[in-house]
Design a protein that fits this description.
Elements (H helix, E strand, L loop, with lengths): L1 H37 L6 E8 L2 E8 L15 E2 L4 H14 L21 E2 L2 E2 L2 H4 L16 H7 L18 H14 L3 H10 L13 H6 L26 E2 L1 H11 L5 H6 L4 E4 L2 E3 L4 E4 L4 E9 L2 E8 L4 E7 L6 H17 L4
Antiparallel strand pairs: 1-2, 1-12, 3-6, 4-5, 7-8, 8-9, 9-10, 10-11, 11-12
Helix pairs in contact: 1-10, 2-5, 2-6
């Protein structure tokens, strides 16, 4: 009986220690990869958040202001840039489930006035084309001085390929999506983001509009010449870019995206356009699926900061990496860091 008790004791001890050991492995992997990144003197700070099996690990490195030694922390506000588009995708998915939209709808159903140009040889642009960058729209709006000008500018667009056939990244499309979402819900887009995503998930530090205190916590970023860059002024509706957030709130966003019981999340992860052998576009998610893994991801880049937000549902894991640097190769460098971090955390595991 004594031996059975001892066996049970050591078994329980092993179970108790298993999680901290794994946690230490994640912390070590984050530290190793972050310090390697900061060896490149074009980078000054990096914040990394990992959510694995419901447990979050957040670490910050470097300095926000060159020469000041002011390390970022959990309250530091970063510009999410194009990761904002995944919020637009989530609300579009909710609108589909609420039967306020259909991905097969001609977008002109939701536009006042006549837009005969928004088709190609009789093939209309549909909602699904807006959210997968296959509409044929230009990257940037033709006119963007105000909302009325934006809508007038749509009349000047010439669609030169059949919608749904060719991927071309467009910031015009998600801005129009935000306008359509406002119209079907009869509420400002910013309010929709708050009501459907931020409040239910207690993402209290994620916002478009910053107050005086928020602005003191907002990162000021640099280019590769160490020149201080301006913060971005939000777009007309906010469907493209404009959200600010912290690492702690992004962990909450990971938890949302990893919730298999959430029908909106499941809809937003639907594959709507196939771009390669294992690459798809969802509701503003880039989806990679092959024999080895399933990934939902999006990159965000603005004048002085960049980030990657990546979800691995089969591993019950998410990674967010944010830095106060932005230049041409930043996204590629951070993407490699994400991949290395993922491999470090998951090595020697089934």
């Amino acid at each position: 009986m004594k031996y059975v008790t001892l066996i049970l004791f050591f078994a329980l001890l092993g179970c108790k220690n298993a999680h901290p050991i794994h946690q230490q492995k994640i912390e070590n992997a984050i530290t190793k990869n972050a310090l390697q990144l900061l060896e490149d003197k074009r980078f000054h700070s990096v914040s990394i958040a990992v959510l694995k099996d419901g447990k979050s690990t957040i670490k910050h490195f470097g300095e926000l202001t060159i020469g000041k030694g002011n390390k970022p922390n959990d309250s530091t506000l970063y510009e999410l840039a194009s990761v904002t588009k995944t919020f637009t995708g989530y609300i579009a998915a909710k609108a589909v489930l609420d039967q306020k939209l259909n991905v097969e709808d001609d977008i002109r159903i939701y536009l006042n006035g006549s837009y005969p140009n928004l088709e190609y040889k009789g093939e209309p642009i549909k909602i699904k084309h807006l959210i997968t960058h296959t509409s044929g729209f230009p990257n940037f709006p033709i006119r963007s001085e105000n909302k009325e000008a934006f809508l007038e500018g749509l009349k000047l667009i010439k669609i030169e390929t059949k919608p749904g056939e060719k991927y071309f990244y467009s910031n015009t499309a998600p801005e129009l999506t935000a306008y359509i979402l406002e119209k079907v819900y009869q509420k400002p887009y910013e309010e929709l983001v708050s009501e459907f995503i931020l409040k239910p998930n207690k993402m209290n530090q994620t916002k478009f509009t910053l107050n005086k205190d928020d602005k003191t916590r907002l990162v000021k970023g640099y280019n590769d010449k160490n020149e201080l860059m301006p913060n971005f002024n939000r777009t007309l509706w906010g469907g493209i870019s404009g959200l600010h957030s912290t690492t702690t709130d992004l962990v909450k966003y990971m938890k949302l995206q990893l919730d298999p019981s959430n029908p909106i999340v499941n809809e937003s992860h639907q594959k709507l356009y196939k771009e390669g052998s294992d690459f798809w576009e969802g509701y503003h998610w880039y989806i990679i699926e092959n024999d080895h893994q399933l990934i939902y991801r999006h990159h965000g880049g603005i004048y002085g900061m960049q980030n990657w937000f990546v979800i691995y549902p089969k591993k019950n894991m998410g990674i967010s990496i944010l830095t106060n640097t932005s230049f041409n190769e930043t996204g590629e460098i951070l993407e490699k860091l994400v991949d290395n971090l993922y491999d470090s955390i998951n090595e020697n595991q089934e």
